[in-house]
Amino acid sequence: MRISEASALALATRLLEEHDAPHDHAALQARVLVTAEMKGHPSHGLYRLPRLIERIERGVIDPQTKGTQRWRADAVLEVEGSSGFGPVVAMAAIERLAPHIPDLGIGLVAVRNANHLGMLAHYVEAIAAMGFVGIALSSSEALVHPFGGTRAMLGTNPIAIAVPTAEEPLVLDLATSLVPMGRIHHHAATGRPIPEGWARDAAGNPTTDPGRAKAGAIAPFGDAKGYGLGIAMELLVAALAGSALAPDVRGTLDSQSPCNKGDVFILIEPSLAPGLPARLSTYLDAVRASPPASAGEPVLVPGDRARRRRAAASRNGFEIDQRLWEDLNALSRPRILAFEGQRS
Predict the structure, then answer these.
(1) Residues 111-153: pLDDT tens digits?
(2) CB within 8 Å of 176: residues ≥ 6 apart
(3) Which InterPro entries is this protein grouped with (predicted)?
(4) E-strand spans in the chain?
(5) Contacts of 253 (CB under 8 A, 6+ apart)
(6) Span 149-175, pLDDT tens digits
(7) What is the pTM (predicted TM-score) of this model?
(8) CA-CA distances (angstroms) from residue 23 to 17, 27, 43, 79?
């Protein structure tokens, strides 16, 4: 079925408010989920909302806190997340640090013990909109096997980068695993097999069964390269945030455990070289205009596809599993919401 952005935001915000989240916290968390849907990443979208609500009910999310911030150095803001919503804790810290960046040149936020962030693109896009280069890193439970291994020892350890230009920023958002674990869970929830090569089961054997993959390990992207980047991110986040390492991380995929992963955000003042934003935009346009490998499939730069999907979803709505939408409606305490859209 197809629903509108406004309907999705209204339902998600109201559900969170009904579970004791202040309006601004609920609206921000809802926005992160709905934007993931609109960009074509339902594994990070409304599928996660029932678990967020269950985590509030179990007391492992505090929907009212923004965490506790402390200046560790002039350019380093340390945050104890105190089990708050990941987006709320992160954006509160980013917004506190941002006014200092023109004087500092560079600054860093290190967060521990906040809940799942969702897509990291949200944060670096916000940083780029402030006029800064943004880098975001996050850690997770042990979900990825090392290159040459079979047991999950690393997190999916995503990284996102945004560079402002004269037009839209360059936005890169990727996990160091072949796929995020959320996609495995989404395949399991929708009863679809996963492609070969994505994961191994608990015994270390390749599998296309998402249920077996959930108990096993995801492959690193690019074999040794993804593994190397992933383990570097593992240590970097733990070293900066003082957070747990992957085998001891809990709370991003379950409903019972306090979340103890780490997040790092870096804000950088770009060069003031004359005409630099325009030069960056011109370069990206030249990349887009370069000869495509397949006719009719133009070259894109990171962020293009997600922006196009989001724009189309804003105009026309987006597809969502009908059962999920009905389940979300059933979670509402008033249990009344107009059913809108059409079935596909």
Answers:
(1) 999 999 999 999 999 999 999 999 999 999 999 999 999 999 9
(2) 144, 154, 156, 157, 158, 159, 220, 221, 226, 227, 229, 230, 233
(3) Mal/L-sulf/L-lact_DH-like_ah, Mal/L-sulf/L-lact_DH-like_NADP, Mal/L-sulfo/L-lacto_DH-like_sf, Malate/L-lactate_DH-like
(4) 2-3, 68-73, 76-80, 106-112, 133-138, 159-163, 170-174, 199-200, 206-207, 217-218, 262-268, 318-319
(5) 140, 141, 181, 182, 185
(6) 999 999 999 999 999 999 999 999 999
(7) 0.92
(8) 6, 6, 24, 22
